[in-house]
Design goal:
With 353 residues, the chain is of the alpha/beta class. It contains 13 helices and 12 strands. It folds into 2 domains: 201 residues, inorganic pyrophosphatase (n-terminal core) (Alpha-Beta Complex); 134 residues, Diaminopimelate Epimerase, Chain A, domain 1 (Roll). Helix 5 runs antiparallel to helix 6, helix 6 crosses helix 8 and helix 11 crosses helix 12. The longest helix has 16 residues. The termini are far apart. The structure holds guanosine-5'-monophosphate and manganese (II) ion. The site of manganese (II) ion has 6 residues, from loops.
């Protein structure tokens, strides 16, 4: 039996909306990842299967390694056609917000979103959902928003209606948000959901290959460069830092998504409990920050305390407006400040080994 995280009353309002609402816009966050795109496309396919007019709008483009997902080419990128996207947002009856918790995460789409008269529905697994939504289904313990879409469809009575397209999108989101079921995925109910997706016909090995064995030569060489020359390990802080400037990225013919997963790699080192990755984003004029941690080390606290960012306990991020060097200085200062903390979860980074 799959234990559903939603009760009938959780989805009652959405069910009522489905009786009258025809036009659905699905929004997800800037720099969309596998879970953002997977969950959005899965819900879009499901709604279309119910005869609805549904479209996915993303603030900026999605990485190429997801381009094989069914429905990917129908995704509207706000940055490519702001006026067209805004019209869809204004005309929507229902806006489904997937895989983000606050409107700041949808960038320039936020203005039209806030102005739209549509019913606003948040389905997400990040901590601290914000205001601006009519219905909020927030489950930080869920592996992924894609898992939550599975539960939503089941709670709406659609367990037997999940098509192969929906199932493939859901599995892709679960896989990418859990490192192929290697973290944040210790749940019986999640594996039961995955079992059902396999029963529907998902080929999980094929999806793994499509997502993770799809690199360009220069991407793999960039990884070698990062590990060999860019990864700094601070054993006294149980921490690691990788930085990449725009110039370095260009040298390796950087394409969006190429640095995905880099931040996780230093955690493979015995004694490293927190890892940071800073990437210069010249186009956006900022430094994109990623943090990962293991156990109860709260990397989201580090992101919040020093960089005004946030996220999950073990996976967080933020943005820094300044140079890469300044970001590194702030990082080192942050570690220094944290080294004076008396909190157990933070102190364990600074215990002499
Ligand atoms: P990633 O390192 O994969 O970009 O992001 C990991 C997690 O950090 C995301 O799932 C999200 O919860 C959080 N995150 C990433 N970027 C930001 C940001 O700019 N601001 C905030 N508040 N959270 C972020
Ligand atoms: Mn997610």
């Amino acid at each position: 039996m799959i234990e559903n995280i939603f009760s009938g009353s959780d989805v009652a309002e959405f069910r009522v909306w489905m009786e009258w609402a025809d036009r659905y816009v699905i929004l997800t966050h800037i720099g969309p990842d596998g879970d953002a795109i997977g969950s959005s496309l899965a819900l879009c396919h499901y709604l279309k299967g119910k005869g609805k007019d549904a479209v996915v709008i993303i603030p900026d483009s999605a990485p190429d390694f997801l381009s094989w997902l069914p429905g990917f080419t129908d995704i509207r990128v706000y940055a490519d056609d702001p006026a067209g996207a805004e019209e869809l947002v204004y005309k929507a009856d229902v806006i489904c917000c997937l895989d983000f918790n606050v409107v700041g995460r949808i960038g320039k789409v936020a203005a039209s979103f806030l102005y739209s008269k549509a019913k606003k529905f948040l389905l997400d697994h990040h901590l601290y959902p914000g205001a601006n939504f009519d219905v909020i289904l927030s489950h930080p313990e869920a592996s992924s928003t894609s898992e939550m879409v599975f539960h939503l469809i089941c709670a709406l009575g659609g367990y037997r209606e999940i098509t192969l397209d929906v199932a493939r999108c859901i599995y892709t989101g679960i896989m990418t948000d859990t490192g192929a079921l290697s973290y944040n995925s210790n749940s019986y109910s999640l594996f039961m959901a995955v079992a059902h997706l396999l029963e529907i016909g998902v080929d999980k090995d094929e999806i793994y290959r499509k997502v993770y064995y799809n690199y360009s030569e220069s991407r793999l060489r960039l990884q070698g460069y990062v590990l060999n020359e860019k990864m700094k390990v601070f054993p006294e802080f149980s921490t690691s830092l990788i930085t990449l400037s725009d110039q370095e990225l260009q040298r390796f013919s950087y394409r969006k998504g190429d640095t995905e997963g880099f931040v996780n790699m230093p955690l493979q080192i015995n004694g490293v409990y927190m890892s940071a990755f800073f990437r210069e984003d010249r186009e956006a004029g900022l430094i994109k920050l990623s943090f990962r941690s293991v156990g109860d080390v709260p990397c989201n606290r580090f992101a919040t305390d020093f960089f005004n960012g946030g996220g999950h306990l073990n996976a967080a991020g933020g943005e820094f407006h300044g140079t890469l060097d300044e970001a590194v200085q702030k990082f080192m200062k942050g570690l220094d400040e944290w080294s004076k903390s008396t909190e157990e979860c933070i102190k364990q980074l600074f215990i002499k080994k």
